[in-house]
Design goal:
mainly beta; single chain
Length: about 550
């Protein structure tokens, strides 16, 4: 029954009862349905073996595949930006010592505000001991300097004035009746040096490194000795990324020395030239450097091979090296008077030529300890020596041994105490044999053994201490009263100490003590040095 009767509705709106007959059950059918197979099918393999009777039986097609590979990019490490170390525009070190010895070192310059640097430096050091009138000395130095950058190159200029005053006090001080006037023993050296240096400040596109320096000085003394000297030092190298380098080192020196008597007549003229073209190959296993030393001594041409080898036995930790070369050493008057201010009059000048045959090894243990040990044979033509003449022993003479052979070596050690300080040791030992046994039976005044040990240490951020000891052993002087005699000079043990303390940010106090053992040693015969001496003062910088 589909619907009940509704009495409230009109008769014509009623739904009449009907009988519904189900003829057939309903089953929906999908027309032309096809089942989709999702099962994998194996690739059919042709099992027929190929025949290779002729080229026509088979063909191998070419498949050129283009592969693209993007390497992973290296992510830069995060580096903490550090401020540049502050440079002082003004530096002053001033003090006073027990031998009435004032000391002043003043320097004023520009800083990193721009690339160019210009400034000046003044130094004064003197001593006026009351009881050692003849050992008074004075040194004054003035310098104007500058360094200027032009693109990838730089220019460096220095103009100096140096004034040194000493006394030749190597005579009998006990004979008070015959003591000379101090002014008669005084020797004064005045020098005006000028230098200009050119070079590349950064790597060029052509990978060429170059540096050239021109030096000139004019020297004169109160004894009317005059010297003009010009020296040229240059190095030019072409580098390749393969580790190959081709270049030349050049050194030239010309000296003109005269006095008031021989000015312009029989004056001493000295010329030296050393050109060393060389080829260098640097690889991870080490380096090989070969070339030639083309030496000109006055009018004599001396070619000689140049060889240096270096091999890394343990990379970064142990390196074996060796070499064979010759170099020319200039002996102008300025160099001689620096080594020995008691030299007398107009000296004889000769260039020295040193041949070196050596082998050594160097490296480091850990991050704090380094070492370098070298030994070999070193032959010097015209070896410079100093001796006391019989006629005036307080004026030392410069003499030259035709050929001096030294067999020995040197040891260098260094240790870094974290960030607080460092220690360095350098010692050498050489056994000398001279060729002119009539005048130079021994290598006069040259020590067999030298040792220099220095230590610097920061006890606190404000307090720094330091010490060094210098040892010289085996020096022999010629007896001026007996030409064939020898005098064994006492060993030198020079112990020094220093300390500085930061009182304020810009102010330091310092103190230094020298020859603490109070040894009256003689660097040259008849010339004892001061005993214990000390000075102290302030350091101001900002």
């Amino acid at each position: 029954w589909a619907q009940d009767d509704l009495e409230e509705e009109p008769q014509d709106k009623e739904i009449q009862a009907e009988v519904i007959e189900v003829v057939k059950l309903y089953e929906p059918i999908l027309a032309k349905a096809k089942k989709i197979s999702i099962s994998p099918d194996l690739v059919k393999i042709d099992a027929t073996p190929p025949t290779f009777n002729s080229a026509a039986d088979y063909q191998v097609p070419n498949r050129f595949l283009t592969l693209t590979f993007e390497p992973p990019k290296l992510r830069p490490l995060a580096v903490k930006r550090q401020k540049d170390a502050p440079l002082s525009k003004f530096w002053l070190k001033a003090g006073f010592g027990n031998y009435l010895s004032p000391y002043v070192d003043l320097s004023v310059s520009t800083t990193r505000s721009n690339n160019n640097i210009i400034g000046f430096n003044l130094k004064h050091h003197s001593a006026f001991p009351n009881n050692l009138e003849f050992q008074r000395f004075m040194t004054n130095v003035g310098r104007i300097f500058g360094k200027f950058y032009t693109g990838s190159s730089y220019v460096k200029l220095n103009l100096d004035y140096q004034h040194d005053r000493y006394h030749r006090y190597g005579f009998d001080m006990t004979d008070t009746l015959n003591l000379p006037v101090a002014a008669d023993t005084r020797v004064v050296y005045q020098t005006i040096p000028l230098s200009v240096e050119l070079g590349n400040a950064e790597e060029t596109r052509a990978l060429i490194d170059h540096k050239t320096k021109l030096d000139y000085h004019y020297l004169w003394t109160n004894e009317e000795v005059k010297e003009n000297n010009v020296a040229l030092t240059s190095g030019i190298y072409k580098n390749w990324d393969s580790g190959l380098s081709l270049g030349i080192d050049l050194y030239g020196d010309a000296t003109f020395l005269s006095d008031s008597i021989r000015y312009g007549v029989d004056a001493i003229e000295l010329f030296a030239l050393n050109a060393t073209p060389n080829l260098t190959l640097r690889k991870p296993f080490g380096q090989v450097r070969v070339g030639a030393s083309l030496i000109v001594d006055q009018d004599e041409f001396i070619p000689f091979p140049f060889l240096y080898l270096e091999g890394n036995i343990i990379e970064k930790y142990l390196t074996l090296y060796g070499g064979w070369d010759k170099k020319i050493i200039k002996n102008n008057f300025r160099n001689l008077s620096t080594l020995n201010p008691f030299i007398g009059g107009l000296p004889q000048l000769d260039n020295s030529i040193k041949e070196s045959r050596y082998i050594g090894f160097k490296g480091n243990v850990g991050a704090n300890f380094m070492f370098d040990i070298k030994g070999g044979q070193f032959i010097t033509d015209q070896q410079l020596l100093f001796l006391n003449p019989a006629f005036e022993p307080n004026r030392l003479l410069a003499v030259y041994d035709p050929q001096t052979t030294a067999v020995g070596g040197e040891l260098n050690l260094g240790y870094q105490f974290s960030k607080k300080g460092q220690a360095q040791l350098k010692t050498t030992y050489y056994n000398y044999e001279t060729s002119d046994t009539l005048q130079n039976q021994y290598a006069w005044h040259l020590p067999d053994l030298t040792l220099n040990l220095g230590i610097k240490y920061a006890v606190t951020p404000k307090l720094n201490v330091g010490a060094d000891v210098i040892l010289l052993n085996g020096r022999i002087a010629r007896d001026p009263d007996n030409a064939g005699g020898r005098i064994n000079l006492d060993n030198i043990t020079d112990l020094n100490a220093s300390i500085d303390y930061r009182v304020a940010e810009k102010l330091y106090l310092f103190a230094e003590a020298h020859n603490i053992l109070n040894q009256k040693y003689q660097r040259y015969y008849l010339y004892p040095t001061y005993g214990i001496n000390a000075h102290g003062g302030i350091i101001l910088r900002f």
